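User: Design a sequence. Structure:
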């Protein structure tokens, strides 16, 4: 099969390209390198089954050609990362809405199966545990930038499902929950690469809020298996799937674990949200996926535990990624807890 991966040079895109090539597929990655990086795909540059097109997905002419040449599309390109979203709300909304519109319109023209990446942010600040695919979204006010991301991705989902219903386009929507692994960067807010980088350089480890908020982290390599399973299974068409782990850890607990695994002397500090992000930032307290649907279809479940993922990320930052900066905001207001 010839896959077109939008956002193919991103953290998840890079892992997906690699896994597809290993299985003998042909891959075209399209990426404008805004948050994607050449380093994530350059190891395939000599592979005749791989090509990288450096272009934005909002270029409809280029997308027309790329879509016409592929068998299946995995649409990952998006403005992601909480810091980026809070800093560049216009870019976030425009990329996520216009980009997906072009992908779907072009996919319809050539009748190509399309997988659309979405996010657990869709559930908003609902406190239901765990989140089922058919649960309500609970969005915050439009005056709070954070919700622009969730709302833009919700529109992507509506549009994808509408193309399926109205034009019979084969689409699959998958919602990713805190995907982590080697090659993820901490520049745009992602917590594990930030903690690992801080711990390895014995800088303060910055836990936002009281650290009691929790997340379920899923290794990118497990996530890729799920995406590939959905791509190949005709029964996934027209449906929405959660992809994530159900193993929950508090962010303070995570900081302590990273400190142990790196043998770091870093202080762990609590930084108030208003200091870390923007005044009025709203964080999710807990976020756990219900993965019954994907488990029933593909017998999929995560296989790589969090400690293994953290070890692999440590290894990455000690080797290939050692010069990678993390955003260096200096916090004046914090409390030392570990
Ligand atoms: N977080 C933190 N310190 C950091 C970066 C993030 O305590 O340096 C927290 C963040 O406030 C959230 C959690 O870690 O509660 C996960 O953040 P991330 O940006 O990785 O993903 P999110 O779940 O917010 O999409």
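Assistant: Done.
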């Amino acid at each position: 099969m010839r896959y077109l991966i939008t956002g193919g040079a991103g953290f998840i895109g890079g892992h997906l390209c690699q896994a597809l090539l290993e299985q003998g597929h042909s891959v075209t990655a399209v990426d404008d390198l805004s948050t994607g990086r050449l380093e994530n795909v350059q190891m395939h540059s000599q592979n005749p089954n791989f090509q990288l097109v450096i272009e934005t997905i909002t270029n409809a002419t280029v997308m027309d050609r790329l879509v016409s040449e592929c068998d299946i599309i995995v649409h990952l390109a998006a403005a992601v990362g909480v810091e980026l979203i809070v800093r560049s709300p216009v870019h976030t909304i425009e990329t996520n809405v216009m980009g997906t519109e072009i992908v779907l319109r072009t996919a319809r023209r050539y009748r190509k199966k399309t997988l659309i990446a979405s996010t657990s942010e869709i559930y908003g600040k609902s406190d239901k545990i765990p989140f089922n695919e058919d649960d309500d979204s609970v969005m915050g006010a439009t005056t709070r930038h954070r919700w622009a991301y969730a709302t833009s991705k919700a529109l992507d989902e509506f549009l994808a499902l509408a193309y399926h219903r109205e034009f019979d386009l084969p689409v699959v929507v998958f919602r990713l929950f805190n995907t982590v692994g080697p090659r993820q960067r901490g520049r745009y807010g992602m917590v594990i690469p930030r903690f690992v980088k801080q711990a390895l350089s014995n800088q303060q480890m910055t836990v936002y809020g009281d650290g009691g908020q929790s997340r379920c982290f899923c290794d990118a390599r497990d996530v890729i298996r799920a995406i590939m399973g959905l791509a190949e299974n005709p029964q996934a068409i027209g449906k929405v799937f959660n992809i994530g782990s159900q193993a929950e850890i508090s962010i303070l607990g995570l900081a302590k674990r990273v400190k142990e695994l790196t043998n770091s002397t870093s202080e762990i500090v609590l930084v108030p949200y208003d200091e870390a992000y923007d005044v009025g930032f709203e964080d999710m307290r807990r976020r756990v996926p219900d993965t019954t649907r994907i488990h029933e279809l593909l017998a999929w479940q995560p296989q790589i535990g969090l400690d293994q993922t953290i070890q692999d990320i440590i290894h990455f930052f000690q080797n290939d990624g050692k010069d990678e900066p993390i955003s260096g905001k200096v916090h004046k207001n914090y409390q030392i807890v570990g």
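The chain has eleven helices and 14 strands. Residues 181-215+247-286+305-336 form a domain with the UDP-galactose 4-epimerase; domain 1 fold (CATH 3.90.25.10).
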